[in-house]
Amino acid sequence: MTSHCNGNMDSFVKVPTIKFTKLFINGEFVDSISGKTFETIDPRTGEVITRVSEGDKEDVDLAVKAARQAFDNGPWPRLPGSERGRIMMKFADLVNQHVEELAALDTIDGGKLFGSCKSMDVPGAANCLRYYAGAADKIHGNVLKMSREFHGYTLREPIGVVGHIIPWNFPTIMFFGKVSPALAAGCTMVLKPAEQTPLSALYYAHLAKLAGIPDGVLNVVTGFGPTAGAAISSHMDIDAISFTGSTEVGREIMQAAAKSNLKTVSLELGGKSPLVIFDDADVDKAAGLALLGILYNKGEICVASSRVFVQEGIYDEFVKLLVEKVKAWKVGDPFHPKTQQGPQVDKKQFEKILSYIEHGKRQGATLLSGGNPLGDKGYYIEPTIFTDVKEDMLIAKDEIFGPVMALMKFNTIDEAIKKANNTTYGLAAGIVTKNLDVANTVSRSIRAGVIWINCYLAFDQDCSYGGYKMSGFGRDCGLEALDKYLHVKSIVTPIYNSPWL
Amino acid sequence: MGSHCDDSIVSSVKIPTIKFTKLFINGEFVDSISGKTFETIDPRTGDVIARIAEGDEEDIDLAVKAARDAFDHGPWPRLPGSERARIMMKFADLIDQNVEELAALDTIDAGKLFSMGKAVDIPQVAATLRYYAGAADKIHGDVLKMSREFHAYTLREPIGVVGHIIPWNYPSTMLLMKISPALAAGCTMVVKPAEQTPLSALYYAHLAKLAGIPNGVLNVVTGFGPTAGAAVSTHMDIDAVSFTGSPEVGRKVMKAAAESNLKVVSLELGGKSPLIIFDDADVDAAAQLALTGIVYNKGEICVASSRVYVQEGIYDEVVKKLVEKAKAWVVGDPFDPEVQQGPQVDKKQFERILTYIEHGKREGATLLTGGKPLGRKGYYIEPTIFTDFKEEMLIAKDEIFGPVMALAKFKTIEEAIARANNSRYGLAAGIVTKDLNVANTVSRSIRAGTIWINCYFAFDNDCPVGGYKMSGFGSDLGLEGLYKYLHVKSVVTPIYNTPWL
Question: How far apart are CA A412 and CA A236, in angstroms?
Fold first, then answer.
């Protein structure tokens, strides 16, 4: 049984006062027009942290008006890239300076590990800002090779007003993953954070203003998907929408975009990513990777390696080591420095995961470890491993988004590739082998947007990632991420008496 | 009044026998499963040219199966880029060798000028094939600059099975513009040509096979939008759809993609492109550009300069020249080498354009010249110019897709920019001026994907074309034209003891 930190242990860290609870529109914190507010819950206890303004269509309209004015007439797109870069660098510094408070907000709002947020999520977000700040003055087009006497070139122009709809699993990383390239490109934006995790977004809005981001450039409207989110995807004056979240909602967004003004859409959706472990792997390392792949951030990560395929030669050894490691895995209060897994983000997710665990048992998979909730308060679930999983079982097909692994065996490399690709998703995949040829063949053959060889969750600012198949389209991170916020204009003029063509 | 050739003129060109009338699936010409056929009409007379196999959902299914097999198991994506290129070059040569027959097919099917087809359209499509053939072995990814000890790179992989839905205005150009980059990328595809113009597509399919394109790589299913077209956009096993056509249908395609498998979508939709003529322009050259901009290809071109704004200093002179040129413009049988404008593509378009002309008169615009159909047979319409139009009039807002110009006066550069941008479309724009600063300011300020300065329709294979706003997203031509058919995969591996980072 996994080690559990006692539920009434005092938090090591003072839980922060919530300073920002209103919508941030045109540089001001304002109530929603309706005056409504909604609760945000602490998943460690199920209790209300605070009430936050609930934005709806009229508030999104105001925010878009501000963003449109800022884009069409304001300074932001008209600044040189280097000056946008300087303001973004200042913003990054402010993020670093407030790391503890920000990390604590994500911990109480999203159940994320405080230690990880302090050392990775929040500093990572500041680095993301810096990465794009450095790119802002390097967004150039091409001069074309015309086949007649014409001078032709392309401009990569900011696309205009962007709508960002971000999920609750990485409130800080998602915020900056989207906002940073859009700012660098010279766009203005309206961001709707997930209703589960509105707190850090509003704090970042405050820091953005302190950093010198002009009014109207970055607007944050907290609220719910069917109201505020839908208002964004169907807005007639938003030029592009960037969404990360579930496949179901991704469909709705793309349809709304089509029905409204044909805004450009990029979607980063779910995954059922395979981790394929060959029998020349270091079994101990492989087991550690497999566990990390499904338990990191309590399994609430789109690229989680929720299907693990182990070659039969090392299968039994692997299972033995996996079970040992999972027993030592610490689930508990995310403020505790020894905790490795906090609570699931809310009651709905908690119940969904438990329901899939029931499906797994009912459909005949073998429960190797875990399977139960932990404690009587909050949304904690034990790391759960199923073996003897058949590919048509729900636990092998659906994205569970929790600490539940489906472990399967394979014989040959072709079988592994076939099984890995047997999913409607295509977000990530992992390969564990020392064999160069196996690594090259399998990495080419798996239909997914990011392949990790002998590692997992190895993200980097310069490394773009995104989906294949029903995991979506468009890329985040890397220079490719800028493409979502730019459009290409070609300009052509005749030339006369050119000495060359 | 446009000059009209007598409709009893005997064509000096032998009208081709129609050799290919069946669906092309997996390398064979086959009847549709239902056995149904549909008529294709000659717009010079309204008579039936031939009956063509009518494909529906089941035929699309067969074609997709063939394309899927060709992609997942066939040679095409597995060939080196240079070998795909050699086959594409052979295909281009075959097109050149059959230029007369292909040009004649588009003339009788779509009313396009035969001499233009022979001298420009068909040779251009061969050039487009060669352009992308030359790119096929240069589609490389990047090696990334990681901030930790990792080796990472991106692969630009063929996206898989592509659906192309092409319009009737440029049957040859549109077909090759879409299939060339898709072939170069290593994709396989299903093409649904417009029901108005199925003939040349089937001929190209025959030539593709002769050239050595393997079975299943290129499939052509003739049929209607609501049946065959919808089957493509909703298909669960098509990875990407590339559509050129009207905004109304573009919406449906995007919606269908969202409702089905979230396939990647690119849309090239309508336009209401402005041509802005400043008062330092050469009056005669500007008037010629303006006329050509709206009557080229009988106005059936998405980038037509349907709104012309002339600075007041030269307005009267330009109007005088325009009317002279419009009156001298020869409308008649498209096989006649003296003719400059053939019939509109079909009865529906013909009636639609005449309806808009009525709207223009009713809404109070001044009819400067033209406005009437020509002759008793076929779908001929006079070049038509309206002046004194207001921006709210239908003839100023809607894409008419016919030889109907809306002409207005302007005073200042700011007014010109504001009026140019006052459209939900953003496909192209033209600027006529010798002033460098005016050219630079205005080209940056107009929200459209292609800006022609002192020229119009200056297309080139290396120059990408794509829409802003509701003219769509995604580029055709240029290296950017490849992106729709590729997806980016990141591959990451740890490295040890690296001497640098």
Answer: 52
End-to-end CA distance of chain B: 72
Asked if A479 and A464 touch (Cβ cutoff 8 Å), the reply is yes
Torsion of CA A303, A305, A307, A308, to 10 degrees: 150
In terms of Cβ atoms closer than 10 Å to its own Cβ (0-12, 13-18, 19+), residue B421 is middle
Is the CB of B376 inside 8 Å of chain A's CB atoms?
A: no
Smallest CA-to-CA distance from A55 within A25, A16, A97, A100 is with A25
**Dist CA A373 CA B164 (whole Å):** 50
Q: What residues in chain B have per-residue pLDDT under 70? A: 1-14
**Contact call for residues B440 and B457 (beta carbons, < 8 A):** no
Interval A203-226 mean pLDDT? 98
Q: Using a CB–CB cutoff of 8 Å, tell me whether A466 touches chain B.
A: yes
Residues B482, B132: contact at Cβ < 8 Å? Answer: yes
The answer to whether residue A136 scores a pLDDT higher than 90 is: yes
Bridge-based pairing state of the strands B384-387 and A450-453? unpaired
Please state whether beta strands B150-158 and B486-494 pair in parallel, antiparallel, or not at all (unpaired): antiparallel
The two three-digit tokens of residue A80, written as one number: 């040189």
B237 touches A at CB < 8 Å:
no
What is the predicted pLDDT for the residue at B341?
96
Contact B144 A463 (CB under 8 A): yes
Closest by Cα among A281, A271, A476, A299 to A383: A299
Q: What kind and span of H or E run contains A62?
A: helix A57-72
- Answer whether residue A66 shows pLDDT above 80: yes
The pLDDT confidence band at residue A15, using thresholds 50, 70 and 90, is confident
Q: From CA B76, how far away is CA A110, in angstroms rounded?
A: 48
| The pLDDT value given to residue B13 | 64
ipTM for the predicted complex comes to 0.90
Q: Radius of gyration of chain A from Cα atoms? A: 24
Chain B hits for A478, CB-CB cut-off 8 Å, are 144, 154, 490
Report d(CA A478, CA A181) in Å as an integer: 9
Task: Please write the tens of the pLDDT for every residue from A86-113.
Answer: 999 999 999 999 999 999 999 999 999 9
Query: What's the residue count for chain A?
Result: 501
Residue type, B173: T
**Could A264 and B473 be called an inter-chain contact, meaning their C-beta atoms sit closer than 8 Å?**
yes
Give the whole-angstrom CA distance, residue B107 versus residue B384: 23
Global pTM reads 0.93
CA dihedral of A351, A352, A356, A359, whole degrees rounded to 10: 70
Burial of A348 (C-beta count, 10 Å sphere; 0-12/13-18/19+): exposed
The pLDDT, as a whole number, for residue B12 is 56
Residues of A catalogued as catalytic: 268, 302
Beta bridge partners of B188: B161
Query: Which chain B residue has the Cα nearest residue A72?
Result: B445
CA dihedral B290, B246, B465, A73 (to 10 degrees): 80
> What domains sit in chain A, N to C, each tagged with a CATH number?
10-269+473-487 (3.40.605.10), 274-460 (3.40.309.10)
Q: What single string gives the DSSP state of each residue in B399-430?
A: ---SSEEEEEEE-SHHHHHHHHH-SS--SEEE
Given B257, B461, B490, which is nearest A147 (Cβ)? B461
Whether chain A has a CB inside 8 Å of the CB on B154: the answer is: yes
Q: How confident is the model at residue A12 (pLDDT cuts 50, 70, 90)?
A: low
Q: What is the crossing angle of helices A81-97 and A199-211, to 10°?
A: 130
